[in-house]
Structures are given as C-alpha cells and as structure tokens.
UniProtKB/TrEMBL annotation:
This is N-acetyltransferase domain-containing protein. GO terms for molecular function: acyltransferase activity, transferring groups other than amino-acyl groups. It holds the Pfam family Acetyltransf_1. Residues 150-206 form the N-acetyltransferase domain. InterPro entries: Acyl_CoA_acyltransferase (IPR016181), GNAT_dom (IPR000182), Trichothecene_AcTrans (IPR052523). It comes from the Eukaryota.
Amino acid sequence: MATANALQLEPVTLEDIPAVVDVWFAAFAESGVRHLFPNTPGVRQWWADANRDDLMHKSFQKYVKVVDTESIDEHGRPRLIAYAKWDLSMIPDRGRRFPPWHEEQPAGECEAFFGGMDQVRLRVMGEQKHYCRKPTPRLRLSRRDTDIDRHRITDLDMLGTHPDFRKRGAASMLVRWGCELADREGVGAYVDASKAGAPLYMKFGFVDHSSPDSTTGIAAMARK
C-alpha cells in the first residue's frame, strides 16, 4: 500500500506512454463511455499514438503523472499510478480533440459524444480569449512545456487513477496542480467529471453547471 509521502508528482515523458495507456484502460474499465474505446491491441495503439502526438507536438497540453516510489514497475522505475492531461487551449485553437478514430471504434457515436461535451464547455465557459503571462509551474517542466501564450481557461481533459491505488490522494495531487496553475494565471478551470467524481472537484472550488435535463451522467464542472 502506498503511503502519502511515497507519491510524487512529475511530468509525463514519452517512455511513460505504455504505462499511461495501461492506467487509462484500468481506470475506465467500468466507465459508461468504455464502449467507445474497446480494449483491443489496435485501440491501445491508437491511444499510445494520440498521447505521443500530444507530447511531441502540442505544447498547450500538459501531461502530469503521480508515481509511487514504494512500488517498482517491470522496468525498475517507480510505478505510474495516475495521470492527468490539462489542456490550456481554447476549443477553436485546439482543433480536433482526438485523432481520426480507429476502425474498431464507433466513429459516429464518438463524434456525437465528444462534440456534445465541447458544446457544454462553450456554454459554461464562453469563448473569449486573452493573453496571459507565462506560468511558472511547481514542476520543473521544459521551456517548451511552459510556452503558453494565450488561453482563457485550463481544461482537465483527462484524469485516471489505477484502481489498485485509489483513495491515496493521487487524483487530488493532479487536480491541485492544475488549479494552482490556473490561479497563478488568473484564469478559470473546467472539467467534464463523472457524477461519482464530482465531490473531488467540489473540494477545489468547482461548481456543477450541468443542465437539469442532462442524461449523459457527466457533470460540467467549472472553477471561475
């Protein structure tokens, strides 16, 4: 069992991609959207390629991980037990959230689901942009990783914790990192959370702005 002081927050690297994919499929094994991402070798490779493209080409997307220094993986490194992807772009500037869907995914349903989430984010947070000073995150990220010129909000695009390491504080560490970044920049933060996960975000000042008639099971959480 991981102790609180054994958990460390670090930037995700390219060599972490296989572990990130493993954590995602373990974390969302019973998710209501899991059928959009079948656990097949092809879709796993699609996820790996998508994450690699983000890390290599999208400086506005920040991948952060929590490792357990008391648990060593098969490569002799501290085990990656949770990760988050914070997106610092506005939707019109970001482009497609995901690459073209894999042939094993229901493309039409994927487009409808994630397109709907983007529309909710626009409704809650708006589209106005402004320039911000460059952040100085607590993590030692590279100059490229901190090259953020224009954004209005920070968006928690993805957060997953391996089921074997839940209730240890890893998710809170990842949420706190993004909230502190947003506070330094004087901007808001947004996340599409599960209803079950909403209480975690409320602890950090997020408010549920979901429509009363929403049937998606997703909470539109904003911290303005």
